[in-house]
Each structure stands twice: as C-alpha cells, then as structure tokens.
Amino acid sequence: MKLTLRVWRQQNADTEGAMSTYEVDGISSDMSFLEMLDTLNEELILRGEDPVAFDHDCREGICGACSLVINGDAHGPERTTTCQLHMRSFKDGDTIDIEPWRAAAFPVIKDLVVDRSAFDRIIQAGGYITAPTGSAPEAHATPVPKPDADFAFEHAECIGCGACVAACPNGAAMLFTSAKVNHLNVLPQGAPERETRVLDMVAQMDEEGFGGCTLTGECATACPKGIPLMSITGMNKEWLRATRKAAKRQGR
C-alpha cells in the first residue's frame, strides 16, 4: 500500500506543533500500525531527518502506552489499542491523520508522546490496598460472591491508556478513575479503605485539571477494554455514600 501520513510534529512542550505530511510506500496489510510508523521512521533516519517520537512498550494490547488519535478516533477505526490495529483496516491511497491525545491534563512531551503521569497520581491517591494482611492467604480463604468477582475483573481490565480522556469532549477522566475505584471497592480486601479511596482519588482527579463528566458516553465507546459507562454511575454512588458518612462523623 501507498499512504499519505499527516503526522503531528512538536519539538517539546514549549514549542508550537503542526501537521507534517509524509508519503510511505510498500506498506503490507499485515503490518501493525506501529510497524508502519517504524517504516516511516527508518526512511526519515536514512534521509537524516528527526524520526517521529511515539510511545510504545508491550505491543500486545496490555500496557496502553501506544495511544494515538488516528483520523480523529482514539486508537483508530477499530475498538482496540493502537499496537493491535493493523493496516488491513486502511486502503491503498488513504490519507491518515496521526495526532497525540488532546487533553489539558496530558501535555505533549514531543510529537505523539504525551505526559500521562496525571493517571499515576490518581492511583497514588488511593488506588491500592494498604490494610495489613500478614502473609499471603490461601486463595480461597476469603470467599467473594461470583457477581462481585465478575464486576471486579471487568473493571480491573482498564489499562490506563487514556482513550476515555481523548474521546471525551470535556477531557474527563471519570471512566478511568471509576474503573480503579470500583474494582477495589467491591472486594473484601478493599473494604477498609472504601470511603477514603473514592474521596481521595476523585479529589486528585479534579486537581489534575481533567474536565467534568456530562455522560456523553464517548469514553466507553472508545475504551479498548470495554469498561462500561455504568462504572461512572457506580463511582458516583460510592462518592455520595462516602461524603455522607464523612459528614455524619463530623456531625453535619
């Protein structure tokens, strides 16, 4: 295939960026999208030009590092991660626009690479279990009802790629935060920190500058792991419950 690529180039966070146009030929339909970018970069290096910076790691659809906006869609035309998107999803002669995530909380580092450490700080605010449990218990020592286990596993699938933020017209991080809150709060191990977890994580999310959620649903549509929109409703219920309990303790 021969393709025209319009790629966002930006030297660093302090400079203005712009779309640059490149022609690539000999692209196989069996290539992944990232392999196609590798081919482009090989050509740029041979010409003595700066290769396009983009994030990647596992290339197995697990880590979420490969996140790109492709023709206006987070991760591209298929509901998968960018690294698992293959060139068979495009046609010979296509023009493909490739951009980084667009969100105030995800500043561009260079070209297609953005700083997603805001997600890390949300996790650091409460996305873990600190209650001492002693040595590792036997696997079946703490019974978990099947519906709760299924709910927890469904939300634990979130890979923190940020597609929800990129797809949201408000740049909200509610789907990501709700997935991290819900998958721990429903389990017995997460119960001791249930209230502080949701209050602290939501507060950190707001502090990071993400937009407000208006339940447009674009986040769930773009999520490559299928985190449901109802996850946000569940977190809102957890937040209201924790807020009321905190107010009751304070005598309000």
Structure description:
The chain starts with a strand and ends with a helix. With 252 residues, it is of the alpha+beta class. The model has no long low-confidence stretch (mean pLDDT 94). The chain is built from eight helices and seven strands; from the N terminus they run ββαβββββααααααα. The strands form two sheets. Strands 2-1-5-3-4 form a five-stranded mixed beta sheet. Helices cover 35% and strands 11% of the residues. It has helices at 33-46, 117-124, 146-156, 163-167, 174-185, 194-207, 218-222, 230-249; strands at residues 3-9, 18-24, 69-70, 73-74, 95-99, 108-110, 113-114.
CA-based shape = elongated
Strand % is: 5-15%
By helix and strand content, what is the structural category?
Answer: alpha+beta
Main β-sheet description: 5 strands, mixed
Question: What key attributes describe this structure?
Answer:
252 residues; alpha+beta; five-stranded mixed sheet; elongated
Can you give me a brief rundown of this structure?
The protein has eight helices and seven strands, in the order E-E-H-E-E-E-E-E-H-H-H-H-H-H-H. It has helices at 33-46, 117-124, 146-156, 163-167, 174-185, 194-207, 218-222, 230-249, and strands spanning 3-9, 18-24, 69-70, 73-74, 95-99, 108-110, 113-114.
Layout of helices and strands, plus pairs?
Blueprint: E1 3-9, E2 18-24, H1 33-46, E3 69-70, E4 73-74, E5 95-99, E6 108-110, E7 113-114, H2 117-124, H3 146-156, H4 163-167, H5 174-185, H6 194-207, H7 218-222, H8 230-249
Parallel strand pairs: 1-5
Antiparallel strand pairs: 1-2, 3-4, 3-5, 6-7
